[in-house]
Design brief:
The chain is 49% helix and 10% strand. The chain is built from 14 helices and nine strands. It folds into two domains: 39-280 and 329-409, TIM Barrel (Alpha-Beta Barrel); 283-327. Strand 5, helix 6 (203-215) and strand 6 form a beta-alpha-beta unit. It has helices at residues 2-40, 70-76, 94-118, 129-137, 159-165, 203-215, 226-235, 259-268, 278-281, 286-298, 312-324, 330-344, 371-379, 384-409; strands at residues 44-49, 80-86, 123-125, 141-148, 168-172, 218-220, 241-242, 271-275, 349-352. The protein is of the alpha/beta class.
């Protein structure tokens, strides 16, 4: 009996060892596949915010302590970043329009300063979808420009072409608060906003969308109300994008898109760029919310995007502590990708971070960790072509279709 027991135990431990070894080999194989895919595809992040003092001695694009800089892009294999000309909503007065436009120009100038003066051998500005591929082939990083908040044009339609000439290739119609173009998903009572001002897109907004179609600028429906999004999809002769939004079915947040809007986006030929902003990715209960605030407060910050002011050791500590309370992770993020792909198809979903504007998850806290997104996609069973589409292929397809509509319209 003892001999049998001993033999059985030996067989058991041998089987366990082989099982562990097989599991380790599988993990190693998946990681190798993910690395191969990550190097092969063009990775495009459609939303990265910048401050007004970007591309100065204070905020050096090369190595500034931020979630996105050129060194972190190289380290994480992030090939393309849409640097964002964001201007927050204020009361709509001639003086505030002028200030908003001045701040927009500061950010345009900063992006050009980065690509033309500071690091022309490292990063180049793309003005077309073909430019993305050409610049990437030269082994430079790629910059593209998006505008967040149509407030930067005020009521001056001619500014769209000016901003296009400066490189803007998409514009989010509104941000937090209604503007002259569109209702926002987040009305701002302090500016006199009611629940709805235009019942979606305004008459001026219709002209804006037509002009964006004419010049070849992508229409971005993130941040705007559901009715405004449905209006924009209906009004646009070209596919539209949601540059940084998630699925409302998984996280019931006003910034996320419900099934009706996603299905309309599919019919339009557009793309939803899922975004790595924790509150859009995963709803926390009150206990988790308070625990998150406490963890951040212990390090003197209010938002994850501010963690760049901390030491590397402090960042590691924050991540470890957040993981214990169920903070949003890359896995939770890809759940939104899975849902959208299942609902509207692989051709209509992409990826974005909203880094330096609130984005950041366990596993993808900055551009240096970009590979982890590809690894999670491989673990979920997405193949190389799927991942190529998600990491920018779909966005480039929309961009080209917008360019073609412009050629046909002009």
């Amino acid at each position: 009996m003892k001999k049998f027991t001993c033999i059985s135990t030996t067989i058991l431990f041998t089987s366990l060892f082989l099982s562990v070894e097989s599991s380790a080999q599988k993990i190693e194989s998946l990681e190798a596949e993910a690395k191969s895919i990550h190097l092969d595809v063009i990775t495009i992040d459609s939303h990265d915010d910048i401050p007004l003092n970007f591309a100065t001695e204070t905020i050096d694009p090369l190595n500034a302590a931020r979630q996105v800089n050129l060194e972190k892009m190289r380290e994480g294999g992030l090939d393309v970043a849409f640097f964002i000309v964001y201007v927050g909503q204020t009361e709509r007065t001639p003086e505030n329009y002028e200030k908003a436009q001045a701040n927009a120009m500061k950010k345009f100038n900063a992006i050009h300063r980065m690509t033309n003066e500071m690091y022309p051998n490292s990063i180049e500005l793309a003005y077309s979808a073909n430019d993305i591929e050409r610049i990437h082939a030269s082994e430079k990083l790629v910059a593209a420009i998006g505008i967040e908040n149509g407030y930067v044009i005020g009521t001056d339609l001619s500014l769209l072409e000016k901003y296009y000439e400066l490189g803007a290739r998409y514009m989010t119609l509104a941000h937090s608060g209604h503007n002259d173009i569109s209702d926002s998903a987040q009305p701002r009572p302090q500016f006199g906003d009611s629940h709805s001002e235009h019942d979606g897109i305004s008459q001026f907004g219709e002209q804006v969308i037509a002009e964006m179609n004419r010049i070849g600028m992508m229409v971005d429906i993130s941040h705007i109300s559901k009715q405004a999004a449905l209006d924009a999809i209906r009004l646009s002769n070209a596919p539209v994008i949601a540059s940084h939004s998630n699925t409302r079915a998984l996280t019931d947040h006003y910034r996320n898109m419900d099934d009706e809007t996603l299905l309309a986006l599919k019919e339009n030929g557009g793309v939803m760029q899922a975004t790595a902003l924790a509150t859009f990715v995963k709803q926390q209960n009150i206990t988790q919310v308070e625990a998150t605030k406490k963890i951040l407060a212990d390090y003197g910050i209010e938002r994850i995007s501010q963690w760049w002011i901390l030491t590397n050791e402090q960042r590691i500590q924050i991540k470890d502590r957040l993981s214990t309370i169920g903070y949003a992770s890359v896995s939770d993020f890809i759940d939104h990708v899975d849902y959208a792909v299942n609902l509207i198809g692989i051709d209509h979903v992409g990826l974005s971070s909203d880094f330096d504007g609130g984005g950041g998850l366990l596993g993808w806290f900055d551009a240096a960790e970009t590979f982890n997104v590809t690894l999670e996609l491989v673990n979920r069973g997405y193949n190389r072509e799927d991942i190529r589409k998600l990491w920018g292929g779909n966005l480039l397809r929309v961009w080209r279709e917008v360019e073609q509509v412009s050629v046909e319209t002009r």
